[in-house]
Amino acid sequence: MTLVAVTAARRSDHHEGVLLRTAYVQALEAVGLAPVVLPTSMNPSRTAVALRSTGGLVLSGGEDVDPAMYGAPPHPRLGPVDRQRDEVEATLVRTALDLGIPILAICRGMQILNVALGGTLHQDLPSECPGPLAHDAEPHDVAIDPLSLLCRTVKSRTLNTNSRHHQALKDVAPALTVVARARDDVVEAVELREPAGQWLIGVQWHPEDRPEVGLFRAFAEAALGVQAVG
Ligand code: MN
Is-catalytic flag, 206? Predict the structure, then answer.
């Protein structure tokens, strides 16, 4: 069984803890992967060491990215942020790229991926870019670049996706290229501009909630390749 690192949100009720939705666990297990949770309350450099023992990195969904990470002032409708999580995930992104470890970035995961590589975000889509789609509440279709790794992976040029985000990519990081958009032009998926053997897909939707087995299976194959040689 191939181990993959998965980031997880910090949550507080009476005592602070770690939250990883079961949908991620089930989606990864279904393709033969064992998720190893890296709590985002950890020291960033220690999570980078832990990542080296795994074959892949999943950046999971969660809270908003702190706009200080890309040098912007907070928007009035910015939600809760966790600066330590931002720092941990940015470190993990750079480490995974250094080591050629495959990255699957989901929702917030795609946003912190973009920020870690020098991009920026819309902090609140409904107020900054009002449009016909309710990205925070309703499923919508995305159009996929037919030449992309994502298109080869899901074997379709369109997907109906469940959409639960109020932030979105604004300036796309130089290393990334947009491979899917919604009909209002919101960025819905990214890949590496020059992959050079590195497997990376970021999606703005939640494939763990639907049987999008193709995406997880391709990630599993990439992770198995890394662990086999590592
Ligand atoms: Mn969307």
Answer: yes
Please answer whether residues 6 and 36 qualify as being in contact, where contact means their C-beta atoms are separated by less than 8 angstroms.
yes
Q: Which of 107, 151, 166, 212 is catalytic?
A: 107
pTM over 0.90: yes
* 140 annotated active-site: no
Please count the structural domains in the chain: 1
- Which structural domain range is residue 211 located in? 2-229
Distance CA 119, CA 124 (A): 16
191 vs 212, higher pLDDT: 191
Active site residue 208: yes
User: What's the CATH number where 143 sits?
Assistant: 3.40.50.880
Q: Tell me what pLDDT residue 228 has.
A: 56
pLDDT of residue 161: 95
